[in-house]
Amino acid sequence: MRERHTIGSRLISIIIEFHRTGATDTITLKEKFNVSERTIHRDLNRLEPMITKTSRGMYCLSAPVQTVLDGVILAKT
């Protein structure tokens, strides 16, 4: 059984997952975080300014957020 995350840690983990994978669907996120699909949709609504929905029904980081994270991560390496 996977560990349950608090809302805050799950939201951060979702952002990291988007950065790592590029785009992810709600089913993958619900399985990864061991929560309902409804919970994932609520989380995505909370992240709405930072994420976008692709034409294929997947979600990804918006271009400005992706650029900022890329810069931060490259600066750390």
Give a written overview of the molecule.
By secondary structure, the protein is mainly alpha-helical. It has a two-stranded antiparallel ribbon with strand order 1-2. A hairpin with a 5-residue loop joins β1 and β2. It starts with 6 loop residues before the first helix and ends with a helix. The model has no long low-confidence stretch (mean pLDDT 90).
List the main descriptive attributes of the protein structure presented here.
77 residues; two-stranded antiparallel sheet; 2 strands
Distance between the termini: 33 Å
In which order are the strands of the major sheet placed?
Answer: 1-2
The overall average pLDDT, rounded, is 90
Number of strands: 2
Helix content estimate: 55-70%
Strand fraction equals 5-15%
As a whole number of angstroms, the C-alpha radius of gyration is 12 Å
The coarse silhouette is globular
Q: Largest beta sheet, briefly?
A: 2 strands, antiparallel
Which secondary-structure class do the elements indicate?
Answer: mainly alpha
Q: Which parts are unreliable, with pLDDT below 50 for 5 consecutive residues or more?
A: none
